[in-house]
Amino acid sequence: MLVSFVKFRTIPRFLNINKIIVRKYNVPRRALMYVPGDDPKKISKSLTLDVDCIALDCEDGVAVNKKREARETIRSFLDKGKPSKDRDYDFGVRINAFDTEYWQEDLESCLTAINLPDTILIPKVETADTIKQFSEEVKQRIKSDKKINVIIYIESARAFLNIVDICKTAEGLSKTSNIQPVSLVFGSDDFCANIGATRTESSIEILYARQKLVLVAKAFNLQAIDMVYIKYKDLEGLKKQCEEGMKMGYTGKQVIHPGQVPIVQEAFLPSASQIEWASGLLQSFEKHQKDGKGAFTYKGSMIDMPTMRQAENVIKLANLKKT
User: Fold this and answer.
1) What is the pTM of this model?
2) Which fold has domain 29-267?
3) Residue numbers belonging to the annotated binding site for substrate
4) Which Gene Ontology terms describe the biological processes this protein takes part in (predicted)?
């Protein structure tokens, strides 16, 4: 029997076990859907969809002469507030890369809105200095302890050489600043262009990079979001690539068309064995809490709070599977 996720929402938001702090549950991001920030109709449409993560785009999805319009349109939607749905979802903004002239205006616009976005997505991160600079910019604009989720894009050879340092820096800053890293994204097309690779249907040319991103993401308890499937009308091909990515350990996929959302979100639901593991873990946690015990073992492993969050994630997805 599935354990109700609602039952475990009663766990205190900040519960100190072995000096590990439980943070607010991170929403699943099976489908991360880009919506051009300069198109209010498409943004309004996206808010009616059952999608885990909406990324209002200031970057690749917006022409250079439309950057300002996108910024202003996104700001107007943020001012109105995040529309409520039957379940939680991520409402974020993808800013322009730090090697452009646009990113500071993007940040200024969305971080001074009446309502902050849940998440900022930072493309083309190549060194830890970008994360440090981003953290300082956020600190200057948010005069509270409010946390902003951060999704980091790895899209070049240099980025992959520095990926561990990037994640270490983001993890460290999460303890002292307003940023909370939640996901790594594999930007496959920019990566291929950067290294001069020729794209193939099998994607063998990017296999190493694709697997490395998952490895590092999991080492830092981050979600791993897979590459875009550009043939948006080929749903069979999309499903196949989703299943391939999930077997590698990816937890979600970038989406460029609403028609891709159902396929992607179904593909990244947990298996029966994952549900059984998570259910048992959370039941064991509840028992140990009632007995006044902190740290505990489950099936031979010492359980910490990142593992607890993973179990909660599985159960929340399992409950979505039932609906």
Assistant:
1) 0.83
2) TIM Barrel (3.20.20)
3) 94, 155
4) regulation of cobalamin metabolic process
